[in-house]
Amino acid sequence: MKYNRIRIKFTHHGYSGWVSVSFRRNRGVMSSGFSAIDARLTNNMVIGYPVVNANVSFHGAGYEAMFGWLQVISHDIGAGETDFSVDITNQFQEFANPFCYYGYRPRFYDAPRMNRSDIKMWKAYTFLCPLSLSNNKEYRKITPLAGFTWGYTMSGEKPESLLEPVPAGRDNWNIIKMNVASYYPHWQFMDMPELDIL
Questions:
Q1: What's this model's pTM, rounded to 2 decimal places?
Q2: In terms of Cα–Cα distance, which of 71, 101, 103 is closest to 87?
């Protein structure tokens, strides 16, 4: 399967930028880097699941280009989407920070392999947000600039079909606010602006 791509335009502080998302099926342990997670994983355990990359291009310089990626996962066990959770690596769970990646024009990468037999669909809501570096309370505001949804459906313990990335809009963001904002009471989940798709 070749890479499928979308581009999502955004603006921040008067500067333009875009997120380029690529998506494909996992080809194996080595190509997706799972060897860094668990040497016992085999190709059969990861082949067929999705792999997603997102690159940030932005015309603002220096600290203007500091962003964070927020990702929320939902599962469908046959009764609609449920079990919303913020996607953060284990070593950062104890910190009250909702971002899975952050930095200077940070790149996003994910290659899930959730294979519980009771899950019918695994879906991700992935949003790029600016990082406020000021010393006032603004730094705890989360305002999505661009976002996309993606995932896969399951048949038994194997992926059945992939949900290719599509731009996420305000309705998607409102789902996130409703389901996970209470996990971070010291953060403000702000409204989402309209997006442009290139």
A1: 0.92
A2: 71
State which amino acid sits at residue 194.
E
Q: Specify the amino acid at residue 128.
A: L
Total of domains in the chain = 1
Domain span holding position 112: 4-197
**C-alpha span between 23 and 109 (Å, rounded):** 10
Other CB atoms closer than 10 Å to residue 184's CB: what's the count? 16
Determine the number of helices (DSSP H) and then strands (DSSP E) in the chain. Answer: 3, 13
Cβ proximity of 85 and 71 under 8 Å: no
Q: How far apart are CA 9 and CA 18, in angstroms?
A: 4
Q: How many C-beta neighbours within 10 Å does residue 8 have?
A: 23
pLDDT in tens, 141-182: 899 999 999 999 998 888 999 999 999 999 999 999 999 999
Give the DSSP letter string of 7-72.
Answer: EEEEEETTEEEEEEEEEEE---HHHHTGGGT-TT--HHHHTTSEEEEEEEEES--GGGGEEEEEEE
124-144 pLDDT per residue, tens: 999 999 998 876 667 788 999
